[in-house]
Amino acid sequence: MPAPKTIRLGAFEWGVMFNEITQECAEEFDNEPQNVLGFTDRRNLVMYIDKTLTPQVLKSTFLHELVHAMGDSFGLGFEDTENEGAVNKIANAFYNFIKQNPKAVEWLIKEE
């Protein structure tokens, strides 16, 4: 199944871009490209994820950026860098739940 190009969160449609993280992007975070796995552009409603990551890290990074996007879309308070630890924990918890409970996920998304 191909990776999503867009996601809907409430009234907002977010783009999802899988690219390599450039030096210019990394410099915005005062970091090196190899240390930036992804980021969320709240102004343009786009999540960027490094396409060179392993599949497991790529999906975990997608969920991390999704938590940021949810925070922005629903006013949950995950918009600043001070919350990176909490965002990581939530994203990892989601990833583990989804991977370890496929029947529960199937039940959740089933239309009734």
Kindly summarize this structure in a few lines.
The chain is built from 4 helices and 4 strands; from the N terminus they run E-E-H-E-E-H-H-H.
Topology of helices and strands:
Elements: E1 6-9, E2 12-19, H1 23-28, E3 38-41, E4 46-50, H2 55-74, H3 84-100, H4 102-109
Parallel strand pairs: 2-4
Antiparallel strand pairs: 1-2, 3-4
Biggest sheet character: 4 strands, mixed
Helical stretch tally:
4
Helix content: 40-55%
Share of β-strand residues: 15-25%
Low-confidence stretches: none
Q: What key phrases describe this protein's structure?
A:
112 residues, alpha+beta, 46% helix
Protein described:
There is one protein chain. By secondary structure, the protein is α+β, with helices and mostly antiparallel strands. A four-stranded mixed β-sheet has the order 1-2-4-3, with helices on one face. The protein starts with 5 loop residues before the first strand and ends with a helix. The model has no long low-confidence stretch (mean pLDDT 88).
